[in-house]
Amino acid sequence: MKYFIRILILFNLILMISCATMSRNANSILSDRYANSNVIKLRERLKNISKKGMAFGQQDATAYGLNWYLQEEPQVLTSDIKKVVAKQPALFGFDLGHLELGNTFNLDTVPFAMMKQHTQKMYKEGGLVTFSWHLNNPVSGGSSWDTTSAVSEILKEGAVSQKYKGWVKQLSLFFNSLKDEEGKAIPVIFRPFHEMNGAWFWWGKGRCTPEDYKKLWIKTQQLFFENGVHNLLYAYSPNTMSSAEDFDRFYPGDQYVDVLGVDIYNHSGDEEFIRSVTQNLQLLKKKSIAKNKPFALTETGNFSMASNAKWWTEVLYPAIKESGIAWVMVWRNARKDHYFSTYPSEKTESNFKKFEQKQDILFLPELKTIHN
Ligand code: BMA
User: Fold this and answer.
1) Which ranges of the chain have pLDDT less than 70?
2) 134 lines ligand 1 (CB under 6 A)
3) Which residue's alpha carbon is nearest to atom 9 within ligand 1?
4) What backbone phi and psi angles, to 5 degrees, belong to 185?
5) What pLDDT score was predicted for residue 11?
6) What is the model's pLDDT at position 5?
7) Which ligand 1 atom lies nearest to the CA of residue 332?
8) I need a surface site. Which of 50, 126, 293, 357 has the fewest CB within 10 A?
């Protein structure tokens, strides 16, 4: 009997050691080496999703839409998309801009408490959530679009850097508060300092050096780790790229990034859009294979939806089908001159219904069936 117990203890020990090694190995390819097991699962799930199709998402989908603001019935989430196809998108995007200031609403008047609630609900139902951060300029106090030089100030020890630490602390509290019903941290995708190859944000091209951009990324990540945030996949997403150089110039490094992305809008006509999305996603696919990281079309949309009633099936779909992306996210439905999905009685409504029917375009009910 004693002998048997010893063998049993030895066996358990071997099992524990090999499990620990396995989880360290799995962790080592994530930017957060202490990422919790749900984050590892999320990354694996993204890879599986891209084998079956792509998750379809929208920014602020359940917060407001055309002709409505905030949930009419908070327990049953609605969205313009649900109003049209009776299905929720498979991914929700939210923006944390102004959380750094300690505000209760973000820059687009979405309450942070609501984002938390909808994230919890979405996670429970098997969907995905991604966060961007249109943070203010910490030097001037202006918005993200205030291009007063700020990155080098954050990197120096001093008042701005102290202020920035406080800002990351605010976000850390939020991320740490995203818990499921069992009290386990909910894994989400965080996409900070996006569109850095454009010149419109204070962290963008010409507003800081690429070296400082990378340092800002790494410093921010380090601050999250110090604050005990371990439920994030970090997504790096430039704006439309004209070459691989555009991706590489600001790329912080494989050990600091988990998901690759790109933001591409339909600005210059349908043909040009199809061409640039196809090319950009091919470029990302190569990177994704070489780096073994999932990739996505992290923001998209048609700025003049009224110009093509068949935009979904004749422009967006041909550009993304068979691209290998894990998700595609359209931007917010803010108002009649600034919306990016359809809504009841909008011009592309019936075409959107056809788009929804595509086997590889996954809404929440389809996404639910794909596990890690
Ligand atoms: C931009 C616009 C703005 C918005 C910002 C952050 O693309 O939609 O109106 O404030 O994103 O969500």
Assistant:
1) 1-28, 72-73
2) yes
3) 108
4) -65, 135
5) 54
6) 55
7) 8
8) 357
